[in-house]
Amino acid sequence: MASPGLELLFNSIKSQIKTSQDALIAVLHWELISKGFKCLGNGEEVKSVVPQIHQQSKESESLPTGWNSSPSFYAMRYSSKAEKDAVYILKVIQIEDDFLVHFMKKGTEAVESLNVRTADYTTGSVESY
Known about the structure:
Elements: H1 6-13, H2 20-34, E1 37-42, H3 53-56, E2 73-80, E3 87-95, E4 98-105, E5 111-117
Antiparallel strand pairs: 1-2, 2-3, 3-4, 4-5
Keywords: Proteasome
GO biological process, one term: proteasome-mediated ubiquitin-dependent protein catabolic process
Protein name: Proteasome inhibitor PI31 subunit
């Protein structure tokens, strides 16, 4: 299965990856980027009104600085090229060996949830792609 950009992402952050969970977050991020989303930064809070978010936050395909500063909780904001004024939140919580993944559109009740058993998708090695 072709995964354009995934190897490039891995090579750009491999010195930052500390755990298998970090690697899985990178894959989730890559999946969003490949679907047309751009990262706006860490955290859940939007500090401005939504229509102005793109003026105050730099949209990027890269993971933000400090993206893996917490070993069991990750939260990042995204914009969508399909909905320029919308902000989406990726929130991932580690519960034992599983991830609880929430992807939500800020300001609405729209939430997609997924439980991921990390051992099913990672090898334990973070040294190679």
